[in-house]
Amino acid sequence: MVDYSVHGQVAVLEVNNPPVNAFSHNVRVGLDRSIDKAIKDTNVKAIVICGKGRTFPAGADIREFDQPHKEPSLTLVFEKLEKTTKPVVAAIHGTCLGGGLECALFCHYRIAQKTARVGFPEVQIGILPGAAGTQRLPRLTGLHVAMDMITSGRHIFAPEALKYGIIDEMFTGDVINAGIKFAKSVMNKPLEDRCLMNKTVKDADQADQIADEFMSLVKRKYKGFEAPIDCVKAVKASATLPYREGLKMESRLMQKLLLSGQSAAQRYAFFSERAVSRWKMPGGNFQTAKPLPIKSTAVIGAGTMGTGIAVCLLNAGYQVYLLEQNQKFLENGVKTIRGIIEGSVRLGKTPMAVAQKAATLLKPTMKYEDLADVDLVIEAVYENLSLKREIFSKLDKLCKPTTLLCSNTSSLDIDRIGTATKRGDKVAGMHFFAPAYYMRLLENIYSTQTSPTTAATIMDVGRKIGKVSVLVKSCQGFLANRMRGPFAVEAYFLLEEGSTPQEVDSVMENLGMPMGPFKTGDLSGLDIGYKIQTELAKSKGVELSVDSKFLMGERISTLTRTMYDNGRLGRKTGKGWYRYEKPGGKLATPDEEEILERLMYSCINEGFKILEEGVAATPEDIDISWIYGFSWPKYLGGPMYYANRIGLDKIYQRICYYHENFPYSSHWIPSRLLLKLSENKVPMSQWCSGTDSKL
Ligand SMILES: C/C=C(\C)C(=O)SCCNC(=O)CCNC(=O)[C@H](O)C(C)(C)COP(=O)(O)OP(=O)(O)OC[C@H]1O[C@@H](n2cnc3c(N)ncnc32)[C@H](O)[C@@H]1OP(=O)(O)O
Fold first, then answer.
1. Rounded to two decimals, what is the model's pTM?
2. Which residues form the 3-hydroxyacyl-CoA dehydrogenase C-terminal domain (predicted)?
3. Strand partners, 11
């Protein structure tokens, strides 16, 4: 588990526990013995710790967290490194994470290959760096950097680590040679200053302020997660408590987190994320089927999904032909893609070099013929089976025989798309989630004809573009939407039965989802649900009407159609279940303006009809009735007074707008009196019984 060798006066301890050299119990025992051996050997004057194969240890063995703890603990082993009078060098390559980084922080020196990454990802499995990481990293970097790294779990590359002082030097070439060379250069140098436990945290005087800043950040960014909060508390302790007391605090918080249900669930998710890559389907699996090489790709459709998919492919270095039938749509698509990539560069998420390369890889086109030689086509037009079949049939005729043809459908039968071609084995579904450049899931779908090689290839592409890919069999809605179907439908039924979108959303958001079903619907576009519903009906030979409440004996919601008919398609139109600051905006607010207008202007219109018909002689009659009959707030003076304050012009225009949109509600037929008064700009003093001074 730890290979021990001596090179002149340097002992090399090489952790050997593939694939990631995790510190399992056996490794801890092996490392403990090797450290003792090196310390005892009087010929050994310096020690190098490194990892065999692909990486420096990537942390504790997470699989052992569910078992009773066995001594020695990591901290116990690592403390021997700091205490020895022989310099200890961590020679880092690959990923030095969690317990791996803690090990390195107990060493007197750290050197790393340029491509190596270091980090504390524990927060992502619901715990904190519990082998003194929360106390030692701040002593090197200060609180700010440590809080950032520990609460986010992000990995940083060696150059950034060098900047923060986490590593002392970068090296190229062989790890062991570099370790030995460095160890020789520091032999016999005093070590006191190299022991982190002796150091203080440089920005300790700002501990309260920095901790408060991160506490509010993590509460907002990682809402509902316990670990980030405890990470902040533990890191703060490094500045406010003596080292040993800080360790006790870290240990207490760690025990609490380990016992929490959240950590167990997050560890389950960690392994599940890896398990889904071990896919299987009739006739093959991840071991038997080999992916085909994919270099050039095409995306058909430059809408929201198509552009998002193109961004994923471009960022991963694939050439992308972006096809649209209309010059304007194509130009808009290219603009969107550039905007997404530039935004990502600004946020530091995409390196400039990647963005520059992406720009050269994008090939906008309106000609299908340009797609003839690509290796993979992803069609991303709207959900319409006949249209998709038409496109696939065309592609089948013009693309080279090896081209894989995939559809970004969220629900349509892949078999029925495949039968439009003579290469059903090379047809599959690649269902991206909106926004495609951001959401991690890729649902790959095989039909009865799809070959395991095609499945292997799209799973491989998914991995290369940074997605977590699952492979599923084609059926109505596949996995994700089929399972989410009842969720969405029940949410609509709840509205029909009296709940509000905000109420439903907040229940799900309180459960921990970042967005409830209505905000999510607005984000994806409410036309999708409508189109899926209509396509489904069509495929069953049913014509849905505005008030259809059943489809094939199943209850359906009339709201899907209503929202579509009213152009409330979500964020893209600036209004859906919520109102947004502009079409494409992100700030969801309940559509207060429309609520207010529809409730009040309809009554005001009625008020003018009441005046027109002489049912009430004056607007004062109406206003007083509201004040004393309906508790209308006196400070608003009654609805007719309120209407005048807003302006009869505006009221009349909005009433006409609602009349156009809701022709079946007679209360929206505009009052003739209102029209007359607004056209002639008659002041209220002339249509009420009072005087100007009264107003
Ligand atoms: C207290 C707590 C302490 C001291 C800790 O250290 S907690 C652990 C902190 N470390 C981590 O959380 C690292 C987790 N691992 C990763 O982030 C990645 O695996 C990697 C970046 C190290 C490598 O990524 P990649 O090359 O893509 O490989 P895989 O992720 O597919 O991993 C390969 C297999 O190794 C298993 N694995 C990885 N890390 C661990 C671990 N720490 N303990 C146990 N097993 C680990 C991983 O599950 C893969 O195996 P399969 O699941 O596919 O069987």
1. 0.82
2. 477-580, 595-680
3. 6, 47
